[in-house]
């Protein structure tokens, strides 16, 4: 009887894992910018007009500059990251290139993508980054809650709680007194 009672809970756990894995993968994909393998990053890579994007040139041993058609050219000190504000009039849905120029003798360049999305009522912004430390959070890549995700999460929690209550009650009834 105990193996049968544990089966619904195991199935619920497997279903919860299966439903949350795609969301975790999507969040991981949204959080980082392009060209991170070379040390040149744009975070977030999808942003609303008027929001701040964090630029880093960790692949450059000296100062670097970064520029795009949607923000002013910025200088990035060696080993640091800087914030640039995307123009308020940037056209939503358009992908732009961010060009990094490393100020070494021959000068090397790298490119990363930046896409402008529709502005929300309250633009998502990132906080300026210090040269040291770990950056956490979503960095402005998520602007508001999705009703379908909230509904699915609530339903999953209700199903899990119901399954737990069922198993506990079945166990109580099967115990000898």
Q: Main attributes?
A:
177 residues, alpha+beta, five-stranded mixed sheet, three-stranded antiparallel sheet, 2 helices, 8 strands, 33% helix, elongated
Helical residue percent band: 25-40%
Distance linking N and C termini: 17 Å
Mean pLDDT equals 73
Rg from alpha-carbon coordinates:
23 Å
**Proportion of strand residues:** 25-35%
Give, in spatial order, the strands making up the sheet with the most strands. 2-8-7-4-5
Q: Regions with pLDDT < 50 over 5+ consecutive residues?
A: 20-35, 121-133
**Number of H- or I-type helical stretches:** 2
Summarize the biggest pleated sheet. Answer: 5 strands, mixed
Give me the secondary-structure category: alpha+beta
What's the helix-strand series? HEEEEEEEEH
Tally of strands:
8
SSE arrangement:
Layout: H1 2-31, E1 40-43, E2 46-47, E3 52-57, E4 64-68, E5 71-76, E6 81-85, E7 95-102, E8 108-116, H2 147-174
Parallel strand pairs: 2-8
Antiparallel strand pairs: 1-3, 3-6, 4-5, 4-7, 7-8
Helix pairs in contact: 1-2
Question: Explain this structure to me?
Answer:
It is a single chain. The protein is 33% helix and 25% strand. The strands form two sheets. The chain has a five-stranded mixed beta sheet with strand order 2-8-7-4-5, with no helix packed on it. The protein has a three-stranded antiparallel beta sheet with strand order 1-3-6, with no helix packed on it. Helix 1 runs antiparallel to helix 2. About 16% of the residues have low confidence.
